[in-house]
């Protein structure tokens, strides 16, 4: 997380050089960057939190109420929405942190929220990978998929995926601590002495492998096979079936690639750039900007569901009519509440019928 930027930074010391260089190294003042973050980040993240929370809660409600979770794809989509919600629920604490420039929630909350933040992030990535593999099996290996794509298999793989995400996020549960610095508390990783650079680089490599390289390789492999299959037997329904997952993957890379590349450059920039205060400031600013872009991804998946999934649109309209329009129709004369009630009463047979593999 790049929510916190130190007021000053001794650039030479950060790169693990000798104490003698620290004696004459001038501090790198970063007060302006932190003040800019305190002004801009809270309103931006508040907007991300509100939109993302409403959208993902609606996805969970629609999936559990109308889809009956009898298809493997829907189970993975539900877990994806839960991952986004877990990620989003940590945002208000970081908003307070960056707005007041101090961590006030204590040591254990620092560990817990930092761990949940990365648990939500990694589980989101892994469930997007599972959705891609699911599409590949359903279209390229359709006969095998009839036996393998069961609810039991989906539940087991979901549990395993959450376990793997927990292992990937385990260092954050261990190393993040509330630390007192210049009279105020901050929530940041406290790595073993003398190993700070190694752990920072490990973190950057882990994020880029799990968050960029692995999903990209799997997407290239799976969608290459899907495209070959569709070219042999073109089918409009199959095109619709992969459209949602394909859009989710493309949007994921658009939002997360700048952050991953910046994080990698931040960890290894002594090998590529001259170690100067200006370069350090520019990287801090780039981290803040790309992280804002990456975090807005939590709001995007529900929008994709609404615009790409025709069946989701029907279920959403049905839910809105049943629970909003009918209720308001009792108090607002010009809303046709009775008519909507009658229409809705015959809709469940359509809404709850067995759905296709496309959302």
TrEMBL record:
Family (UniProt): Belongs to the G-protein coupled receptor 1 family.
Subcellular compartments: Cell membrane
Ranges that cross the membrane: 44-63, 75-95, 115-138, 150-170, 209-231, 243-269
Organism (species): Jaculus jaculus
Location of the G-protein coupled receptors family 1 profile domain: 55-305
Annotated protein name in UniProt: C-C motif chemokine receptor 3
Gene Ontology biological process terms in this record: calcium-mediated signaling; cell chemotaxis; immune response; inflammatory response; positive regulation of angiogenesis; positive regulation of cytosolic calcium ion concentration; positive regulation of endothelial cell proliferation
Pfam family, one: 7tm_1
Entry-linked SUPFAM superfamilies: Family A G protein-coupled receptor-like
GO cellular component terms attached to this protein's record: cytoplasm; external side of plasma membrane
């Amino acid at each position: 997380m790049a929510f916190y930027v130190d007021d000053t930074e001794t650039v030479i010391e950060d790169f693990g050089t000798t104490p003698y260089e620290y004696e004459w190294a001038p501090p790198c003042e970063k007060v302006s960057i932190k003040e800019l973050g305190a002004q801009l980040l809270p309103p931006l993240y508040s907007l991300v939190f509100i939109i993302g929370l409403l959208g993902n809660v609606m996805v969970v409600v629609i999936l559990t109420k109308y889809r009956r979770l009898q298809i493997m794809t829907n189970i993975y989509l539900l877990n994806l929405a839960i991952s986004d919600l877990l990620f989003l629920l940590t945002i208000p604490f970081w908003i307070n942190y960056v707005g007041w420039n101090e961590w006030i929630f204590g040591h254990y909350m620092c560990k817990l929220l930092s761990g949940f933040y990365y648990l939500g992030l990694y589980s989101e990535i892994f469930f997007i990978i599972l959705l891609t593999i699911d599409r590949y099996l359903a279209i390229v290996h359709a006969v095998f998929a009839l036996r393998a794509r069961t609810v039991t298999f989906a539940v087991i793989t979901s549990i395993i995926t959450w376990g793997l995400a927990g292992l990937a996020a385990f260092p954050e549960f261990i190393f993040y601590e509330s630390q007192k610095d210049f009279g105020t508390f901050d929530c940041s990783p406290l790595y073993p002495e003398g190993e700070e650079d190694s752990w920072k680089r490990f973190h950057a490599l882990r994020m880029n492998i799990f968050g960029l390289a692995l999903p990209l390789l799997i997407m290239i492999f799976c969608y290459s096979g899907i495209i070959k299959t569709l070219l042999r037997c073109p089918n409009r329904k199959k095109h619709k079936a992969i459209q949602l997952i394909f859009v989710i993957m493309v949007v994921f890379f658009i939002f997360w690639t700048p952050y991953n590349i910046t994080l990698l450059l931040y960890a290894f920039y002594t090998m590529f750039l001259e170690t100067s205060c200006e370069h350090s400031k520019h990287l801090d600013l780039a981290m803040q900007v790309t992280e804002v872009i990456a975090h807005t991804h939590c709001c995007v998946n529900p929008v994709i569901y609404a615009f790409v999934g025709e069946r989701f649109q029907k279920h959403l309209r049905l839910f809105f009519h049943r629970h909003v329009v009918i209720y308001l129709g009792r108090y607002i004369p010009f809303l046709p509440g009775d008519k909507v009630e009658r229409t809705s009463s015959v809709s469940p047979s359509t809404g709850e019928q067995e759905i296709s593999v496309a959302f």
